[in-house]
Amino acid sequence: MASLIFKLLFLQLVLVLIQHAYSGSIIRSLPGFEGPLPFELETGYIGVGEAEEDQMFYYFVKSESNPIEDPLLVWLTGGPGCSSFSGLVYENGPLAFKVETYNGSVPTLVSTTYSWTKVANIIYLDQPVGTGFSYSRNPLADIPSDTGSAKRVNEFLRNWLAKHPEYFSNPFYVAGNSYSGKVIPAIVQEISNGNYICCKPQINLQGYVIGNPVTYYDHDKDSRIPFAHGMGLISDELFESLKRSCGGNYNTVDPLNTECLKLVEDYHKCVSGIYEELVIAPKCETTSPDCYTYRYLLSNYWANNKSVRRALKVVKGSKGKWERCDYAVHCKKDIISSIPYHMNNSIKGYRSLVISGDHDMTIPFVGTQAWISSLNYSVIDKWRPWMVLDQVAGYTKTYANKMTFATVKASGHTLEYKPEECSIMFKRWISGQPL
Predict the structure, then answer these.
(1) Active-site residues: which are they?
(2) What is the helix, strand, coil percentage profile of the chain, to 5?
(3) pLDDT tens-digit series, residues 149-174
(4) Is residue 276 part of a domain?
(5) Do 202 and 243 lie in a common domain?
């Protein structure tokens, strides 16, 4: 009898140890970075879904300030199919690539001054499965969907926290940009419902941050024409004709409306030479080191290097060619509009920060302002400039539903175009200060 009790106690201890064992590996150094990392990095996988067959890969960077008390964020890059590593090295993380012509060796990484990890712990998560280094053990797994991604991320977070219980009480936020802006409000709702209905550990959910977010894609795309007119990319005459013939609907045009179709074609001719993600930047070949987007190739060279994969503890054979944005990752886009999720999250009292680079034509601020206005919340801090070092960094407006909208002057589709200003904005907002 005593032997049986001992075995049961031993089994219970083993289960506890497994539950609280590290889910990842502490990374002290990385190929391409000189010397030890000046911040704490963990990488690893968390299993979700049936039999944990979906293995979600993450990079976790501890706050460089006070990790035990500072907010905890999960960062999701868009696509769908773009790795969160993109956020880590191009937008708001503590590392960046030195932009130089690739010579066959491991690209060089350097420290940044603008990382959000100065004041927050961040989990950079590759999702949906198939993105980055995330993979499925089931070759016949269902195609991911928007709503399915919301459930998977919620499950990931609860499993991650179960293995990192020291972060249970940290204020928690969901953050990301572009296409993830459609999924993030659904994730917030999923976490909130889980906290209320069933699930442990509880997540200390406080709100969310979205940048140039896809919200209602047809309407987002429709806003490109008034944006192009406001930027002087199309004439007054063409704009007025488009409004008259198309009635504000420029993307799902009735095939019988030949006049509208012809005018939309004229619009496309006018803007075909424009780099949509930042209209003031040149549109050029990605492979040219002189082009801004050349830096994206460096992450491909880096992440496909065998020494890098060993350093990151990537499971051997789990991923073929790594791509920063793998648009072959299929995802059922079953959330047509995220506006209802925003409304529900607002009713529950969650804070939100909506950021728009004001020179982005992919998801223009014009469309983002329109859906925010449709929520019909009263304004508590009217439109005004927000400043950095006595210079206008953008404009902001705050609503009674704890939603703050902010533009970033001369910025584009992601935070990378004005990282210093976006960092200052985030630090003010996350600490409860006015922008």
Answers:
(1) 178, 360, 413
(2) 35, 20, 45
(3) 999 999 999 999 999 999 999 999 99
(4) no
(5) no
